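A further point concerns the way the authors explain their paired sequence and structure data. Each protein is reduced to its one-letter sequence and a matching series of backbone shape codes. An entry of this sort, consisting of the sequence and the corresponding backbone structure tokens, reads as follows:
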Amino acid sequence: MKSLIKFESLKIIKSKYFLSLITLITVILCSYYSYNYVHTLTIDDLIQDIRTKLEMEEESLAAYEEEIDEGNISENNMEVENILTRIEFDTEKLQGYLDKDWERVTTAEYQRAAEEKERNDNIYSWPTEFTSEARYEENKWLADHQLRPVFPIHYWSTLTIYDEAFDSAVIEESVRESSNKHSGNSLYFLYNSYNVGFGIVGVAFLLFLFGDIITKESMGRNGTINFLTTQPHSHLKIITSKFLTLMMVTIGLLISLTFIGIILGIVFDYFGKWMYPVLIYQPELSMSFIPMGLYLLYCVILFLFVVLFSYSLMFLFSVITNRTSMALGLTLVTLILGMQLNETIRETAFAAYYPFTYIDVEKIISHEWAALHDNFELTLHNGVITLLLSTILIMTLTIKLFLKKINE
């Protein structure tokens, strides 16, 4: 088995097609990092913004004080009190930015968030009560662990799945832009990359990368794949070695791309913090946070099982059609149709045991779909079991068909 796996691995990594696609995905990854880095808010940007804001607040305060001196408004005017509160808050944040005292910055934010969430009872419109609570808990976590935030970090930068309406299109645009955060640090870049790539996009790339592992060797009694059987190898070992090779090369590829992402972050920014909070939705409008590092690990685990399942489909269609284009087409169509059907069954108990449910990794690990459809059986644990059992069933059928066709 080891010799077969080595043989298949060398055959893959030495092919010009493989090297071309690896070069392409590396260029795409570096370009995506450049995009994230360029859109990262720097400390200088934040200092300039908050100084401009303070200047405007002080001008407004001076205008109100002039009105008070002239007797046009009361000394106890509520708007004056609000401006003074904002000036105090922004001054505290500015000093935190200047000193790079992240605990000071996040403490100011979570203390203000605590006041805001007490006054908030919105259910559907932004910010919902849930969103206010999430903002408070996230900033408190950051303060408690003394972590540098990913900016921006303010009232407009938190958005959750329960925010279904906005008071205006301008507010919606501002909130969506502010909550879509970018950072050049390694871990947050991997967070954004995994959320984008660990789904049908990443699966499709891998299928195109390895799609001809079966079909490039014709089957039948006179097929080239029978050359291997002239060696001391059984047909079962041959197809099993191909499947294991795919998973090993895939794991190696993911490790390599992750390493590139980490190096880019370290060179151009910083590594990031393992303990950075990631929101996880819980039943009955509750929530929890898990460390960024643990979230990334969960994403990798589930995605590998999604890939395992997808490869089993590709092997099945490759054996049936013996044509690369048809096998790839049928695999992708099956995955896409399976995902579309999933949209109609997510609220049912069956959804937790339906393998196509788990293709969009981010939505499963964050429990976003579980919360939206009130089905908290959609978990990493159930996903791994469902995908593994589905793979075993499909590969069992594939091997039987393969052995039948190889002897025809």
Observations:
- Strands lie at 277-282, 286-291.
- The two ends are 25 Å apart (CA to CA).
- Residues 235-268 form the longest helix (34 residues).
